[in-house]
Amino acid sequence: MAKLTKDLLMGDAYTTTVKAVVSGQEVDVEIKPLNGPDSSRVEEWLQEGNTMKGRPGRNGKMQQEMSMDLKKNAKGQKESDILACAYGTVDSDFNEKFIREHWPNHLIKTVASEVKDLSGITNKAEIERFRNEQSGDSDGSGELVHSDLPSGDSAERADDDEPAAEAHSDSSV
Fold it and tell me: Which of 49, 53, 85, 116 could pair with 69 as two cysteines, CB 3.0-4.6 Å apart?
């Protein structure tokens, strides 16, 4: 059993490598798990564009409404990946600005995915289970639709002040 130390908590005591291909060459990128504050910053960007509202529903149950601005969410995903790479790489030369300007997108996605997994930010098994459960909620348009809504564009049922690029899903809790 290892002794709990400051370095272990800060993520400095454990590192691993990610293999990737850059300009036709296989390279190793040394990564470490994110510490608490860095992990929080990465997770905040993952939530960009998502809104969850609650209201009293039928039979005293709370109704939840989730909306997603797809454009803001895509930007949040990208920012989250860049920060995960910047905070999670051991090489101090790989800062946010350098990664944004010089790293190819496939390298950012590969390294960010591994850093997030190592840090416990994402759980691939839970994500896959959720996708499988929700597979019946898509009409192929890229929007989430509730199964008891009439067919058609779910954005038409949204409030007039919401952009049409949002997806909506209602569920009881």
Answer: 49
Q: What is the pLDDT of residues 12-57, one digit of tens each?
A: 668 889 999 999 999 999 999 998 889 999 988 888 878 888 888 8
List the one residue out of 173, 162, 172 whose CA is nearest residue 67.
162
d(CA 150, CA 162): 20
Which residues does 13 contact at the CB level (< 8 Å), separation at least 6? 5, 7
The predicted model scores a pTM of 0.62
Candidates 117, 139, 115, 140; CA nearest to 128 is 117
**Helix (H), strand (E) at residue 50:** strand 50-56
d(CA 85, CA 32): 10
| β pairing state of 50-56 and 62-69 | antiparallel
| Domains of the chain, residue spans | 33-131+166-173
